[in-house]
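INFO  loader      accepted 1 record
INFO  loader      residues=118
INFO  predictor   begin
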Amino acid sequence: MDYLNAFLCGGILCAIGQLFIDKTMLTPARILTGYVVAGVILQAIGIYQPIVDWGGAGATVPLTGFGYNLAKGVAKAVKEKGALGIITGGLTASAGGIAAAVLFGLLAALLFRPKDKR
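INFO  predictor   done
INFO  writer      dumping tokens
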């Protein structure tokens, strides 16, 4: 059942993004940024945690999950370190994902020799 919930949750988030692309004049970059901000806001007001509990990886892997992770990291760091946690919490919580993205991007660039589109 966990796999089905993850599939449904991730699918719903992707379908909403596709609707934004198809039905609005928003650029994909604005939609992606909006998803991160939505994850932060929904976590801050306590709505995203129940979604994560139900959807698992379907809620934490998309960009809303990145925003959720940032907000969760900031909240934890503020409890532990005070105001300094506002600056360090998000980066500490998401460092592993950011490092993996940079590493895999570098490996892809080295292995596949990307070229400019002309």
